[in-house]
Amino acid sequence: MIIVVKKDCEKKQLDNLTKWIKSLGLRIDLSKGDNSIIMGLIGDTSKVDIDLIRSLDIVDTVKRIQQPYKLANRQFHPEDTIVDVCGHKFGGNNFQLIAGPCSVENEKQIIGIAQAVKASGANILRGGAFKPRTSPYAFQGLKGEGLKLLLKAKAETGMPICTELMAEKYIDMFEDVDIIQIGARNMQNFDLLKAVGKLKKPVLLKRGLANTIEEWLMSAEYIMSEGNDQVILCERGIRTFEPMTRNTLDLSAIPLLRELTHLPIIVDPSHATGLNRLVDPMSLASVGAGADGLIIEVHNDPTHALCDGAQSLRPEQFDALVKKIDVMLPLVNRERK
Amino acid sequence: MIIVVKKDCEKKQLDNLTKWIKSLGLRIDLSKGDNSIIMGLIGDTSKVDIDLIRSLDIVDTVKRIQQPYKLANRQFHPEDTIVDVCGHKFGGNNFQLIAGPCSVENEKQIIGIAQAVKASGANILRGGAFKPRTSPYAFQGLKGEGLKLLLKAKAETGMPICTELMAEKYIDMFEDVDIIQIGARNMQNFDLLKAVGKLKKPVLLKRGLANTIEEWLMSAEYIMSEGNDQVILCERGIRTFEPMTRNTLDLSAIPLLRELTHLPIIVDPSHATGLNRLVDPMSLASVGAGADGLIIEVHNDPTHALCDGAQSLRPEQFDALVKKIDVMLPLVNRERK
Amino acid sequence: MIIVVKKDCEKKQLDNLTKWIKSLGLRIDLSKGDNSIIMGLIGDTSKVDIDLIRSLDIVDTVKRIQQPYKLANRQFHPEDTIVDVCGHKFGGNNFQLIAGPCSVENEKQIIGIAQAVKASGANILRGGAFKPRTSPYAFQGLKGEGLKLLLKAKAETGMPICTELMAEKYIDMFEDVDIIQIGARNMQNFDLLKAVGKLKKPVLLKRGLANTIEEWLMSAEYIMSEGNDQVILCERGIRTFEPMTRNTLDLSAIPLLRELTHLPIIVDPSHATGLNRLVDPMSLASVGAGADGLIIEVHNDPTHALCDGAQSLRPEQFDALVKKIDVMLPLVNRERK
Amino acid sequence: MIIVVKKDCEKKQLDNLTKWIKSLGLRIDLSKGDNSIIMGLIGDTSKVDIDLIRSLDIVDTVKRIQQPYKLANRQFHPEDTIVDVCGHKFGGNNFQLIAGPCSVENEKQIIGIAQAVKASGANILRGGAFKPRTSPYAFQGLKGEGLKLLLKAKAETGMPICTELMAEKYIDMFEDVDIIQIGARNMQNFDLLKAVGKLKKPVLLKRGLANTIEEWLMSAEYIMSEGNDQVILCERGIRTFEPMTRNTLDLSAIPLLRELTHLPIIVDPSHATGLNRLVDPMSLASVGAGADGLIIEVHNDPTHALCDGAQSLRPEQFDALVKKIDVMLPLVNRERK
Question: Which residues of chain D neighbour A210 with C-beta distances below 8 Å?
Answer without folding.
Answer: 209-210, 239
